[in-house]
Amino acid sequence: MEHLHDPADESIELLRFSTAGSVDDGKSTLIGRLLYDTKTIFEDQLAAVEDVSRRRGDERTNLALLTDGLRAEREQGITIDVAYRYFATPRRKFIIADTPGHVQYTRNMVTGASTANLAIILVDARHGLVEQSRRHSYIASLLRIPHLVFAVNKMDLVDYREEQFRKIETEFRNFAARLDVHDITFIPMSALNGDNVVDRSERMPWWQGAPLLYHLETVHIASDRNLVDVRFPVQWVIRPQSDEHHDYRGYAGTMAGGVLKPGDDVVVLPSGMTSRVSRIDTFDGPVDAAFPPMSVIVHLEDDVDVSRGDMLCRPNNQPVVGQELDAMICWMSEKPLSVKNRYAIKHTTRNARAVVTELSYRLDVNTGHRVEGVASLGPNDIGRVKLKTTAPILHDAYRRNRATGSFILIDEATNNTVAAGMLITEG
Questions:
Q1: What is the dihedral of CA 29, 35, 37, 43, to 10 degrees?
Q2: Domain 7-224, classified CATH 3.40.50.300, yes or no
Q3: DSSP structural state of residue 127
Q4: For an engineered disulfide with 165, which of 81, 148, 150, 188 has Cβ 3.0 to 4.6 Å away?
Q5: How far apart are alpha carbons 140 and 119 in whole angstroms?
């Protein structure tokens, strides 16, 4: 649960979801419809959109304009940019990462979806499973997004026919059987007309499922987090500022895994020193337990040496501490990746340098096949590499913990992020 420091809604969960689809699948209209029907847009925004729609001669308010304004500004530059939208209902708070649909934007999808609980993949009811849909589904499974929703949109253009929806559903289920995703939902909808987005559609009486918003409000996300392995990367060491606080020394950071409580024995990595948690503070005062993604200050009983980039965990449950990494990476730079290239690596709160020692294969994201014998990776390519780092990295496999299993590579000359990586093995 992520708290936004309003005591009134501290009990409300936050769901992060990303949207992906080909260029004209109706993503903007869908997001516009969610914002419009949940009354999240502001009066002045709505007035502007209605005005533009009228001037363009549209017979109804064009909800896509709510999101397209930002896209026009965004596509001037080729930055890794994702438009985030925030809205809330009495049941949940939501953050949407809207990622562009073009093939050359794989990197945007990886950026937007990397922290998502759920991904909505839009499919045009007329066209069914296209290459882009396969690509988006495959990337979602690679990123281990726990919940997938296939929104079969534009049902109004196929006369709301059940057999067209079922055909697409069967085709996708056959394809998805090869993916590592455990929760897949299909919803027939028309974002343009509002069918099955926020309210159930009377035009599809054959559909017994819930509309999209209800699914987003009720999908079970609490067990998506790893609450088994305690992982607390230290972001900041808080030292006493004056004599009266001379005993105040704490370690600030965000819980990346497990549940930590006062009285727990902990080990500090990579030094291996041990101590015990004396108390845990938050913005709102002390708590009796910390779990992801809470931001807390942990106090220890002993005055041990802890620095930024170190990690607290339980003595009998530790991450891998190593300098040789095996990972899948999504390459984001126009300048290709090749073996022997050197980069800065950022992993949780730890920074080091890394050299690429091996490029094993490139992944064909449309088929899931490996292309071996490649010499480099170009922009938006995904491939498997081996890295050697200048300092030990305290990590888990990405499939076990998305926070401690991911990293980014940075080109030190330009300071640009050139790759997002997912650690594969336990060693």
A1: -110
A2: yes
A3: T
A4: 188
A5: 7
Residue 5 confidence (pLDDT): 38
Q: Give the domain ranges of the chain.
A: 7-224, 232-313, 320-423
Cite the beta strand spans of 239-349 per DSSP E: 250-254, 265-269, 273-282, 285-287, 295-300, 311-313, 320-331, 337-338, 342-347
Residues 304, 295: Cα–Cα separation, whole Å: 21
> Of 219, 125, 224, which is closest to residue 172 (Cα–Cα)?
125
Of all residues in the chain, what percent are helix, strand and coil, respectively (each to 5)? 20, 35, 40
Q: Does domain 232-313 have CATH number 3.40.50.300?
A: no
DSSP 101-116: -SGGGHHHHHHHHTT-
Distance of alpha carbon 422 from alpha carbon 108, whole angstroms: 16
Closest CA to 125 of 154, 166, 82: 154
pLDDT at 8: 39
pLDDT tens for each residue of 85-125: 788 888 898 988 766 555 555 666 676 667 789 999 999 99
363 within 8 A of 383, measured Cβ to Cβ: yes
Taking the C-alpha atoms of residue 125 and residue 87, their distance in angstroms, rounded to an integer, is 27
CA 24, chain centre distance (Å)? 23
Reported as a pLDDT band with limits 50, 70 and 90, residue 133 is confident
Distance of CA 60 to CAs 27, 32, 46, 189, Å? 18, 13, 12, 18
Residues in the chain: 427
Q: Has this prediction a pTM greater than 0.85?
A: no
DSSP bridge pairs for 386? 326, 358
| Closest alpha carbon to 96 in 139, 133, 67, 63 | 67
Of 3.40.309.10, 3.30.30.10, 2.60.40.10, 2.40.30.10, the CATH number of 320-423 is: 2.40.30.10
* Fold agreement between 232-313 and 320-423: yes
Any idea which of 22-36, 58-72, 221-235, 346-360 has the lowest mean pLDDT?
Answer: 58-72
- What type of residue sits at position 117? N
Q: Taking 90 as the threshold, does the pLDDT of residue 263 lie above it? A: yes
Q: What is the mean pLDDT of residues 287-300?
A: 94
Return d(Cα 118, Cα 15) in angstroms, integer. 8
Q: Which candidate, 158, 125, 99, places its Cα nearest to that of 25?
A: 125
The CB-side HSE value for 113 (13 A sphere, CA atoms) comes to 31
Give the Cα separation of 198 and 86 in Å (integer): 16
Q: What is the dihedral of CA 345, 348, 350, 352, to 10 degrees?
A: -10
